[in-house]
Amino acid sequence: MVKLIFIRLPDGKKYEIHAKSGQSVMEAAIAGRIPRIIGECGGACACGTCHVYIEKAAQKNLPAASAMEEDILAFIDKAKPTSRLACQINVTENMQELTLYLP
Q: Model's pTM, two decimal places?
């Protein structure tokens, strides 16, 4: 199991969950009842309701965002260069203690 850490902004409340390799970060977050991760489209990269921020240094361990994901992020008001859609990130063993921020 891979430990993921979610931090709610702006108050800094911390949530920790354990995820299985291969599942999406969104699926793990919903199963772990992480607030602000809704996943309305079920992981189809169509809605942006699983938007998170990931520290720039940690992004090197993740696959790059697809063009489709970048298109969705372009329509999110609070998007930043560190924004990702949790539905598009599959959990791997090298993500141990990955910290994600909830806008």
A: 0.95
